[in-house]
Amino acid sequence: MTTKPFDFCQDHSRQFLEMALGQERRERVVKPDGYGMRTGDCGDTVEFFLNTEKGRIRSVSYLTNGCLNTNACANTVAHLIEGGSIEAGWEITPEAVIAYLQTLPAESHHCAELAVGALYKALADLTEKTRQPWKKLYR
Residue 38 sits in a domain of what CATH number? Predict the structure, then answer.
Protein backbone atom coordinates (compact mmCIF):
# COMPACT_ATOMS: atom_id res chain seq x y z
CA MET A 1 0.00 0.00 0.00
CA THR A 2 1.41 3.38 -0.98
CA THR A 3 0.39 6.68 0.47
CA LYS A 4 0.42 9.80 -1.57
CA PRO A 5 2.83 12.49 -0.36
CA PHE A 6 1.37 15.46 1.51
CA ASP A 7 0.78 18.44 -0.77
CA PHE A 8 0.61 21.55 1.43
CA CYS A 9 -1.55 23.65 -0.89
CA GLN A 10 -3.84 20.85 -2.04
CA ASP A 11 -4.29 19.06 1.31
CA HIS A 12 -5.07 22.09 3.48
CA SER A 13 -8.40 23.92 3.53
CA ARG A 14 -8.74 27.35 1.99
CA GLN A 15 -9.37 28.79 5.46
CA PHE A 16 -6.16 27.28 6.82
CA LEU A 17 -4.09 28.62 3.93
CA GLU A 18 -5.57 32.13 4.21
CA MET A 19 -5.01 32.28 7.97
CA ALA A 20 -1.56 30.65 7.93
CA LEU A 21 -0.19 32.86 5.19
CA GLY A 22 -2.11 36.07 5.98
CA GLN A 23 -0.10 38.97 7.40
CA GLU A 24 -2.64 41.83 7.42
CA ARG A 25 -3.16 41.81 11.18
CA ARG A 26 0.49 41.29 12.19
CA GLU A 27 1.56 44.48 13.94
CA ARG A 28 2.45 45.89 17.34
CA VAL A 29 0.04 48.51 18.65
CA VAL A 30 1.21 51.16 21.09
CA LYS A 31 -1.19 51.58 24.04
CA PRO A 32 -3.92 49.15 23.00
CA ASP A 33 -7.12 48.95 25.02
CA GLY A 34 -6.27 45.33 25.81
CA TYR A 35 -3.01 43.39 25.60
CA GLY A 36 -2.26 39.74 26.24
CA MET A 37 0.77 37.52 25.72
CA ARG A 38 1.25 33.82 26.25
CA THR A 39 4.16 31.48 25.58
CA GLY A 40 3.48 27.79 25.07
CA ASP A 41 5.50 24.78 26.16
CA CYS A 42 6.73 24.54 22.56
CA GLY A 43 8.38 27.98 22.89
CA ASP A 44 6.00 29.81 20.55
CA THR A 45 4.66 33.15 21.78
CA VAL A 46 1.44 34.92 20.77
CA GLU A 47 0.62 38.55 21.60
CA PHE A 48 -2.78 40.20 21.01
CA PHE A 49 -3.54 43.92 20.83
CA LEU A 50 -7.22 44.88 21.11
CA ASN A 51 -8.82 48.25 20.38
CA THR A 52 -12.45 48.76 21.27
CA GLU A 53 -15.25 51.21 20.70
CA LYS A 54 -18.68 51.20 22.36
CA GLY A 55 -18.37 47.66 23.71
CA ARG A 56 -17.16 46.16 20.43
CA ILE A 57 -13.74 44.97 19.34
CA ARG A 58 -12.95 47.53 16.65
CA SER A 59 -9.57 46.12 15.64
CA VAL A 60 -7.32 43.22 16.53
CA SER A 61 -3.67 42.74 15.74
CA TYR A 62 -1.20 40.12 16.83
CA LEU A 63 2.42 39.10 16.77
CA THR A 64 3.85 35.62 16.98
CA ASN A 65 7.31 34.15 16.83
CA GLY A 66 5.88 30.71 16.20
CA CYS A 67 5.37 28.27 13.41
CA LEU A 68 2.90 28.53 10.53
CA ASN A 69 0.28 26.67 12.57
CA THR A 70 0.58 29.18 15.42
CA ASN A 71 0.20 32.03 12.93
CA ALA A 72 -2.89 30.35 11.48
CA CYS A 73 -4.46 30.04 14.94
CA ALA A 74 -3.63 33.61 16.03
CA ASN A 75 -4.93 35.03 12.76
CA THR A 76 -8.10 32.94 13.09
CA VAL A 77 -8.74 34.25 16.60
CA ALA A 78 -8.33 37.81 15.33
CA HIS A 79 -10.63 37.10 12.37
CA LEU A 80 -13.32 35.55 14.56
CA ILE A 81 -13.48 38.35 17.14
CA GLU A 82 -12.88 41.50 15.11
CA GLY A 83 -16.05 43.58 14.95
CA GLY A 84 -17.80 41.48 17.58
CA SER A 85 -18.74 42.27 21.13
CA ILE A 86 -16.28 41.96 23.97
CA GLU A 87 -18.54 39.33 25.56
CA ALA A 88 -18.43 37.24 22.37
CA GLY A 89 -14.62 37.28 22.56
CA TRP A 90 -14.81 35.29 25.79
CA GLU A 91 -16.78 32.59 23.94
CA ILE A 92 -13.98 31.77 21.48
CA THR A 93 -12.55 28.33 22.21
CA PRO A 94 -9.63 26.32 20.85
CA GLU A 95 -12.22 23.94 19.38
CA ALA A 96 -13.82 26.82 17.43
CA VAL A 97 -10.41 27.77 16.02
CA ILE A 98 -9.67 24.15 15.05
CA ALA A 99 -13.10 23.80 13.42
CA TYR A 100 -12.68 27.03 11.44
CA LEU A 101 -9.26 25.98 10.11
CA GLN A 102 -10.52 22.46 9.24
CA THR A 103 -7.05 21.03 8.51
CA LEU A 104 -4.94 22.07 11.50
CA PRO A 105 -2.80 18.98 12.20
CA ALA A 106 -3.74 17.16 15.42
CA GLU A 107 -0.19 17.53 16.76
CA SER A 108 -0.64 21.32 16.47
CA HIS A 109 -3.93 21.69 18.35
CA HIS A 110 -1.89 23.18 21.20
CA CYS A 111 -1.37 26.21 18.90
CA ALA A 112 -5.11 26.93 19.10
CA GLU A 113 -4.96 26.67 22.90
CA LEU A 114 -1.99 29.07 22.93
CA ALA A 115 -3.74 31.66 20.75
CA VAL A 116 -7.00 31.51 22.71
CA GLY A 117 -5.07 31.77 25.99
CA ALA A 118 -3.36 34.95 24.77
CA LEU A 119 -6.76 36.31 23.72
CA TYR A 120 -8.18 35.66 27.20
CA LYS A 121 -5.25 37.54 28.73
CA ALA A 122 -5.94 40.49 26.39
CA LEU A 123 -9.63 40.44 27.32
CA ALA A 124 -8.75 40.33 31.03
CA ASP A 125 -6.39 43.28 30.55
CA LEU A 126 -9.14 45.15 28.70
CA THR A 127 -11.56 44.48 31.56
CA GLU A 128 -9.03 45.73 34.12
CA LYS A 129 -8.33 48.90 32.13
CA THR A 130 -12.07 49.52 31.77
CA ARG A 131 -12.45 49.34 35.55
CA GLN A 132 -9.32 51.43 36.16
CA PRO A 133 -8.67 53.54 33.02
CA TRP A 134 -5.56 55.19 34.46
CA LYS A 135 -3.71 51.87 33.98
CA LYS A 136 -3.78 52.34 30.21
CA LEU A 137 -1.43 55.30 30.62
CA TYR A 138 1.29 53.08 32.08
CA ARG A 139 1.49 50.32 29.48
Answer: 3.90.1010.10
